[in-house]
Amino acid sequence: MQEIIKVGISNHHVHLTKETYEKLFSEELTLRNKLHQIGEFASNQTVDIKCGEYELKNLRIIGPFRSYNQVEISASDARRLKVKPPVRKSGNVKGSVPVTIIGPKGSVSLEEGVIIANRHVHFNPEDAKKYNVVDDEKLYIKVKGEKSGIMEAVAKVSDNGYLELHIDTDDAFAFMLNNDDEVEVSDTLK
Asked: E-strand spans in the chain?
């Protein structure tokens, strides 16, 4: 596989269950803008999070509701919060960092939930078959430009997948990448 794809940069954000959301807000979750991944959206609602005595404000809630609660932050955010979250695939919060999520109606304390999301390339099943890629397969991303280099990512195959590299703000700054920039993805280091 060797293909040119676009970049999508994720700032810190949260995924919540409906039950958790209703403890934090009295209003419905409302759409701010659609995301490329089919059915997903950035909402108008934001929360603050607290880890110990340190806090981050205005983390956007990504909809729709999930079956788990998760806070995705960058390594820079983790340093500000004085925590060491694991780098994980979204949805894998077992044994991760505890957090308190604060909304206008109340707060919810979780024993686990804070991660740094691994770099990943979204594929729908048809694209995965076309490029002969399986879920969690290691991929290599070649970045050209002033801060060129190669980064590793994993394939994330899902029914709503839209072919795109997802990285956090730290990775974007390190490689001087912007949303919709193009990079080359390959399953080998050639």
From this structure: 2-10, 13-15, 31-34, 41-51, 54-63, 70-72, 87-88, 97-102, 107-117, 120-123, 138-143, 149-157, 164-168, 182-186
CATH number at 143 reads 2.40.40.20
Per the CB < 8 A criterion, the answer to whether 102 and 47 are in contact is yes
Last residue of a domain, which of 99, 117, 135? 117
pLDDT tens sequence across 31-53 = 999 999 999 999 999 999 999 99
pLDDT tens digits, residue range 49-61? Answer: 999 999 999 999 9
Residues 157/181, Cβ–Cβ less than 8 Å: no
Range of the domain at 106: 11-117
92, 141: one domain: no
DSSP conformation class of 67: S
| CB of 59 closer than 8 Å to CB of 12 | yes
DSSP 8-state assignment for residue 27: S
Domain boundary at 86, 117, 148, which?
A: 117
- 84 shares a domain with 29: yes
pLDDT band at 188 (very low <50, low <70, confident <90, very high): confident
